[in-house]
Amino acid sequence: MEYFGQIVWWYVVTWIVGMAVLPVVNVIFKKSFDGGYGMARAAGLAMVVYGTLVLGTLRIVPFGSIGLWAVLLVLGVVSWTRRVEWKKWMLVEELIFAMVFGVFVYLRGINPDIIWGSSEKMMDFMLIKSVLNTKYFPPIDRWMAGQTINYYYFGHVVWASLIKMAGVVPEVGYNLAVATLAAMAATGMFGVTGNLIWLGGIKNKRWLLAGGVLSILMLLGGGNLQTVYSLVKNGAKNYNYWDGVRVIPGTLNEFPAYSFLVGDLHAHVNNLPFVLLGLGVMTIAYMTKEYQMRLSIIMGLLLAIYYMTSAPDAYIYAGLFTLVVGTRAITERWGVRKTASNILVMLGTGVIASLPFAVYFRSFGQGIEIVAERSPIFLLFLLWGWIAYVFSGLGVIKKKGVAGIWLVACVVFVIIPEIVYMKDIYGGDFKRANTMFKFGYQVSVLGAAATGYALVAVWNHKRTWIKSLWVAGFGLGMASVMLYPYFMVKSLYDGRVGSWNLDGLLFLKRYREGDYEAEKWIERNLPKEAVIVEAVGESYTESGRVATYTGRATILGWPVHEWLWRGNNDMVSPRQEEVRMIYQSTNNDEVKKILGRHDVSFVVIGDLERLKYPRLDEQKWMGLGREVFRSGRTAIFQVN
Q: How many of the other CB atoms lie within 10 Å of CB of 173?
């Protein structure tokens, strides 16, 4: 019961955010079966955080709980000048949100650790702490003292905002954010699939519920055919859940179910509720007869959110939104002028609305290259065979709706990484890893949305042997891809020791108690602008742990990540050498120059520093400053 009050209040805050903007969402989704309720939380967070970001970037209002609640109040007052059309489906979607939120809160409590290793939780937590400790935007990069974050951080501002508004500690807020993300994605997916069914002419409530739930299951738990193939070939004892997201060598094949279960708050995952909001708007734009310019403006605003949250998604959905508008223009015979104006307004709105972020962001893409070696057909089948089968159901029915456009998009998204890739710092066998990852992730999202719709639409089609055969195949395929979460949950959560808790940093007390106490001391005593120095190691290790867990900047955190974000190694390598000299040099004057160059006030010495820098002389720091903290084998020195 220790966390009960925090969980409930956090839940209530998310509900208030959604309710504040519900009348506006209701206007956009007035033809929807649910009035847009399932996407209200995502819409509310987008509006509140975007408004706060603009005010913080212009240095009008500092980032904090007062400013956030003030922005929400203004939005609520303006929004509630309109009436809401209440629908019974709103209660259903609230129950879905509560159920998914509860399940993932429970799972996070079993394995709450914000730890290094195979995931990027430390990176995500660092970004959240950087935002929490900022006053204005853009926030300082706590892994690169003196520099601002050059990564897509809007999603991390969302979670930092909820942490501020709910008043929970970040290490608990992180795990509540994972649960909230899954719940918002679930209700957003229910809304998208439900509208495909409802606006597609199937007004049966039971079928709508069934289709929506199926799509949620696919989003939160569905894998690919690699799982069943591996089980048949190697047996259950030898199955590793990592194999499901590394199907094609040299690429990343992550899908939403993996993201939610592993618990990272990475850019592409943070963007999911907003992507689903966009798919909802797209469905309304295509499947209703009242297309207005305001829908182009809304899609443009969403493109800006995508760019700030996960930039590659903005380009992907700019193409998809344009395809939807263009197709609508052809079927409705808009003419060139109306078509061009809608597309230009959409793209122009996206560019202008993203400026608070874009003027400070420098793309780390290095151009487009041609793919030399393509993926084996069989591995592509394991990866996309199930989604291809889902979309094949559209061939059985006549009214395909916007799902027909999604099918075209998925084919294009699968083909693109087989022809070209975006060049980044990764070379060799991994040069197209990120390109396939970004496109493939969206194929998984669109495939999940189509899952429930395809089954419901085919089932309600006239009786034929083709229909019966397809439904039987659907059942077999769905059972196959739903095997994945069993093995992943078993691996990540089964046999965990310790009591259930939501504190993501409590593991440190068991692992390195001295470091844990030092970090708590820093949180209590050092200003948020303080710069510390600690050991530099490799990415995915505990290097940068003090900066990450306290939100105080260090000279250098994870080197490869900073190299990726900066687009080159020009700033990273010199800093690695400078930190080495700080700890091992016997020339105190040179050490003072480096400390002064980066405005370092405090030096951390723990087991990690002693291991990394074997010639470290702890006594020299008595001449350069004074000891201000010690617990076990961890000490902190304040430098003069």
A: 25
Where do the H-state alpha helices sit in 33-85? 40-57, 65-79
Do 307 and 357 meet the contact criterion of CB atoms below 8 Å apart?
A: yes
Q: 3-class secondary structure for 443-469?
A: HHHHHHHHHHHHHHHHHCCCCCHHHHH
pTM of the predicted structure, to 2 decimals: 0.96
User: 3-state DSSP: the chain helix, strand, coil percent, rounded to 5?
Assistant: 65, 5, 30
Cβ atoms 256, 448 nearer than 8 A:
yes
Q: Is the peptide bond before 138 cis (omega within 30 degrees of 0)?
A: yes
Q: Give the pLDDT band of residue 594 (cuts 50, 70, 90).
A: very high
Which structure tokens are listed for 626?
């004074």
Angle CA 157–183–548, to nearest 5: 35
Q: How far apart are CA 96 and CA 80, in angstroms?
A: 25
CA atoms within 13 A on the CB side of 7: 19
CB 534 within 8 A of CB 608: yes
Distances (CA, A) of 339 to 171, 325, 326: 48, 7, 7
> Can you give the length of the chain in residues?
640
User: Per residue in 80-94, is it b (16+ CB within 10 Å) or e — as a string?
Assistant: eeeebeebebbebbe
Q: What is the pLDDT of residue 461?
A: 83
Contact, 549 vs 517, CB < 8 A?
Answer: no
State the Rg of the chain over Cα. Answer: 25
Q: Residue 428 has which token pair?
A: 């060799």
Q: What is the mean pLDDT of the chain?
A: 93
What is the mean pLDDT of the segment spanning 353-380? 90
* Amino acid identity, position 418: E
The pLDDT of residue 511 is 87
